[in-house]
Amino acid sequence: MYSDKVMEHFRNPHNYGKMENPDGVGRVGNPQCGDEMVIYIKVENDVIVDVKFETFGCVAAIASSSITTDLIKGKTIDEALKITNKDVVNQLGGLPAIKTHCSVLAEDGIKAAIDDYLKKKKEKEQN
Amino acid sequence: MKKKFIYLDNNATTKVDDRVVSEMQRYFTEVYGNPSSLYDLGQEARKAIENARERVAKILNCNPSEIYFTGSGTESDNLAIKGVARRYQKKGKHIITSAIEHHAVLHTVEYLGKKEGFEYSLVKVNNDGIVDLDHLKSLIRDDTTLISIMYANNETGAIQPIEEIGKIAKERGIYFHTDAVQAAGKLSLDVKKLNVDMMSLSGHKFHAPKGVGILYKRNGINPIPLFHGGHHEKNLRPSTENVPYIMGIAKALEIAYDEFEEHKEKIYKLKMMLKEGIEKNIEGIVLNTPENSVFNTLNYSFKGIEGESILFSLNDFGIGVSTGSACTSGSLEPSHVIMAMGRDHAICHSSIRFSLSKYNTEDEIRYTIEKLKEVIDRIRRISPYKQ
Questions:
Q1: How much is the ipTM here?
Q2: Among B182, B136, B163, which Cα is nearest to B289's?
Q3: Which residues of B touch A61 (CB under 8 A)?
Q4: What are the structural domains of chain A?
Q5: Whose CB among A41, A113, A123, B337 lies 3.0–4.6 Å from B155's, allowing a Cys bridge?
Q6: Per-residue model confidence as pLDDT tens digits over A34-63
Q7: What whole-number distance in Å separates Cα of residue B296 and Cα of residue B286?
Q8: A59 at the B interface (CB within 8 A)?
Q9: Does domain B18-258 have CATH number 3.30.70.3040?
Q10: Could you give the dihedral angle defined by the CA atoms of residues B314, B318, B319 and B325, in that order, rounded to the nearest 10 degrees?
Q11: What is the reported pTM?
């Protein structure tokens, strides 16, 4: 039911684990719904220099998280904000229709992490 | 050489016993007559299926005239529930079933509710997943005509108090049907002792092939048939009798009860071995199978991880299990069975069912425990909930 690419990322996910002192954290979904994703980013000069994730979820949720970290690593904030769930699905070589929400969660995760980063940045500038 | 797959999903379906396959063989190519045909080839087939009926009746402790062969467990459930509800609707249009039934029962009752003006009530279960008899009694109304409660639950293995429910139903003059699909080969099917009016069985859960089921129906009850056609199965189930499969299901049921004690002892020992192995080696678990359960089923939730990711990781090691997680079923709600037991949503999404058979070995269980621990540790490292 899953593409080889999905299984590859599920078996050996990239960039997983907690990040110490991240510049932005996005927490989306919740275990009540069956999946929760946490995306951590480190940003230097508006470029995402490091990214990590932690995910409670199915094969598709873990694979979506993993590929998403690959997609945004090294990208500017503006570039990262342009990434959509369709990009996630395409990079994974497709997802079963009932699993589309996992890719949406990944897109939401990036946006939430960037939002958090921008909010913190603003607070810092104001202080 | 490809390694043997370790099959621990026997509540989903089972391997057909070689002896069952051999038994069926000649009814495809030698005794292929239509049992309704009057010449010898037909009458030999007739004799064979009537003999099969007698052998099934012996195990169920009923009259052979009370055994009907169907196409599946789902069909037997539909025939019993729709058939009786429709036949006796002048007496009343209220049905009682439980919150943990298989969809073959639950969706059938819901259909009658939505499309044919029936009302239904769902009996609650306790934390062990066993139906609450006091609640059941409180749901009975003057217009209740049918109670349908499963014998053993497919996900948790919990055994339901069928005898007591049968007694309650009898006292109130209500028909009682039990879906015994997960009990066949694991518990006594003595319909007199169990106080049941109707009972559904499915061949492929006890080493017969898919596509054949049994309905026990006490004489004197007259469900309206689902199909209309010839006079087969005394008009209750028109369709040319599926002779090889009927021979197969009878043979499989016979093997299951002839060798009952032997399999029970072996499988229960494997279940206990798996249980000890999991509880000794893995933290953060919730047992979803009560003490009073069928001897082959064990269900756990592994906190902090989602069931489907466990399933696919075990598959990579050649181990087959199932999950109550919503992610596999295509619906957003996780297992209605574990939910009905009052467990948290996240716990329901994390449930894994191991269901064993006579074909499993101690080596397989040892290997499963070892790989399960690896898998759980790996996925927890990815999860925000580490335990």
A1: 0.94
A2: B182
A3: 306, 327
A4: 4-121 (3.90.1010.10)
A5: B337
A6: 899 999 999 999 999 999 999 999 999 999
A7: 18
A8: yes
A9: no
A10: 40
A11: 0.95
